[in-house]
Amino acid sequence: MNKKITVRNLCLLLLILIVSACSYPTPTLAPAPTQTAAPLTTETLPATEAPVATPSLTASNGQCSNAYYPVREGATWTYSSTGGPAGGYGFTDTITSVREDGFTLTSQFGSLTRSQEWACQPEGLVALQLGGTSAAILNDDNMQATLNVDHVSGVTFPSTINPGDTWQHALEFTGQITVAGQGIDAKGDAQSSFQAVDYESVTVPAGTFEALKIHVNTTININGNFNGVSFPVKVTTPYDYWFVKDVGWVKASGSGDVGGESFSETIELQTYNIP
Length: 275
Prior knowledge:
The protein has 275 residues and is mainly beta. The protein is 7% helix and 56% strand. It has one domain. The protein has a 14-stranded antiparallel sheet with strand order 6-7-9-10-11-12-13-14-1-2-3-4-5-8, covered by helices on one side. A hairpin with a 3-residue loop joins strand 12 (229-244) and strand 13. It is globular, with a radius of gyration of 18 Å.
């Protein structure tokens, strides 16, 4: 297998994992869980007004409570992406299980799904996995990653967020990446730096919102070993996200370069429902 093609494909896979490291959307998938997310809607849908969050037995009280990421069982968000390195795609995120100390986020991409485990801690919400349940598949490029997280530090969504705040989140992992049927042993880490910028008015298909802009700069380092030859792969990508209280994130925007090909991606919330 051509090393140049391998490295380019790895860069593309890493970029997709970057966007998904904190539950942000990607076409990275995992084997279907017992309960699947709501079907992806491809037709144009009317704007959705933010529903009033009412208390329930599955509501996110205590450590799972977060103003900018409402953790409620059955909550769903449907997004659409354009301009990304993997082409246009859409997906639906659903919180399929809420516990006192964490929750499960399930993402539906077409007919396939992935799930990601989260922890609820006094400091905030923490993503425990990179791109799903230690597996990510990008069908278009015949790639599959089985990455087991060995260590997690920092926080993904702090319990309180104000303009000017900064924080960190990091994952260390080992596993294997398969490209065109060829296995590559991999070991690496993903480090994300967050900065809350300021409030802005944002309009997306789901409506117009007063949102907190958060800049996320993520770097993923992987040392791959293919047929006894080791090579490092590093991808650093900045993305901006807009979060709305009692709704979640409604928009993301980022640009970069993958294997010499530039891209400029925009992801927008289409519809949502929070019980």
